[in-house]
Design a protein that fits this description.
There is one protein chain. By secondary structure, the protein is an alpha/beta fold. Helix content is 52%, strand content 19%. The chain is built from 18 helices and 16 strands. The protein has helices at residues 31-59, 65-88, 91-96, 101-128, 132-153, 157-162, 206-219, 229-238, 255-264, 282-291, 303-344, 347-354, 377-382, 386-407, 432-454, 486-496, 507-513, 545-556, and strands at 2-3, 9-13, 16-20, 198-202, 222-226, 243-247, 273-277, 295-298, 361-374, 410-415, 418-423, 460-474, 480-484, 503-506, 517-527, 531-541. The strands form 3 sheets. Strands 9, 10, 11, 12, 13, 14, 15 and 16 form an 8-stranded mixed beta sheet that branches. Strands 5-4-6-7-8 form a 5-stranded parallel beta sheet, with helices on both faces. Strands 1-2-3 form a 3-stranded antiparallel beta sheet, with no helix packed on it.
Amino acid sequence: MTGNPTGGSTSSVGGATASRSPHTPPKGVDEEALKRLRHDLRTPLNQIIGYTEMLVETAGESAPAALTEDLQRLNASGSQILAILNEGLAPWKFEAGKVDLVGLRRSLLGLLTSVLGYRDLCEETARAHGLEEAVSDLEKIGQAARHLRMMLDQDSFTERYALGAPIASNPTSGSPVLFPGSRTPILDPTVTVPAAGHLLVVDDEPLNREMLMRRLKRMGFTATGAENGLLALEQLTKETFDLVLLDILMPELDGFKTLERLKADEKLRHLPVIMLTALDEASSTVRCIEAGAEDYVPKPFNPVILRARITAALERKRLRDQERAYLAEIQAERAKSERLLLNILPKAIGDRLKAGEQTIVDAVVEATVMFADIVNFTGIAAKLTPEQTVAWLNEIFSDFDHLVERHGVEKVKTVGDSYMVVGGVPLPIPDHAVRCADMAMAMIESMQVFNQRNGLAWQIRIGMHTGPLVAGIIGSKKFAYDLWGDTVNIASRLESHGEPGMIQVSQATADLLTPLFVIEPRGHLALKNRGKMTAYALISRHKPLCAVKSSAAVASSPGTTRS
């Protein structure tokens, strides 16, 4: 390099001569190229620092003094390279046009020589004392240092980055990725956190992944590795993890897209993710956090800070899991309360009660009330054990409950062996009488099935009446939804004056059923407080006209007989 009249410098790279200021990036350099440069140089550097720190932690008092001293010097040299690299490629220098790639390369190569020298001394001492594990880690440090020197030794170092072309990648990986190192004093190896989680480490660089997993295990965590985002997503479907440490720059599926897929998955969206990357510019941080990352740790990271952030993320996850468990429990209890409320009150009334209505009472213009009662149940129950009585009564009324749902009427209550139903309450329906009639006939059939099932001959009688009534809730601690008025009393009287197996209805109900049902008059009944009333027996539904014609056609066909 020689001076020039403008006070700048001239450098010859690959036979080409370029003139520029000593503090100005090569012509054509852009911010993306410098980001990539920071990333590529930090990759092997962080491996050097990370493995050296772990060697110092495990050396302890039993290690040879010479090995401990050389390891500390090795770590100090690596930290010094990192400091120079961070300073030389600081974003503010790019903005001010003061990035000096030539000077940076020279400084890094000088310190890298010290790193390689101390590494060789450490390996020699470790081999002499039979420390095979330390030798293995020192070989990895040597591999990373040689990779860094290979990048810096390229004649076209500055121009390749200025023109946007990448430097040769790490021979051990398709694309270089950083591993966290430390710029702080070595951690006390006796200080660990309790094993509190299963962590997934996602990094495409094998040395980075292996080193981070080892450090996490020393901290007391369980760690599993994945070499890219696709394999990580596959792993997450097979195992349960508490936290993901996710690198950004990876082949196949990068960290940003992997994070997006995680947060879009209903089962995985609550899994905390900490991003690890050398892309330390603010835009990457913002993008990660906005995409749902729990935290962001730039490489090289401080192990103390990383451990603290992992612990904090796991604690937040624990609290969120606890919160979700509480919410699920609350929802389960709420659903249970809803079911209990629906067993006591009609849904429409329950909704009004939950909405805050204090007094619920409705004047209903027209509804159909039905009572059903087991004939001579008192005498029957006297011959049975209490358990058998309750069991059979429960069987009958459970069948009736299913019929209530099927026919769209409302069960009001049971009193002893009496079963009370209403149609048109609490919500008005135009065919309330028809629904109750269908329900009544289904109840007669249900009793026949019950008798066949249990070898009995029990019978019920049913009474129905249509008219106005009052409906509402009574009680303040034990709610009860009930009906009042002459309509209720008359329906009850019609049931009690009926015959076994009969559905007895009033004139008002018969008028609503006549077009659809077969109804026979039963004369006048003397009802208490009502005098004489005309009563009818509900027999069956009328057959549809098309069915009648079809039956007649079959009967008149040659070769057929009427059964």
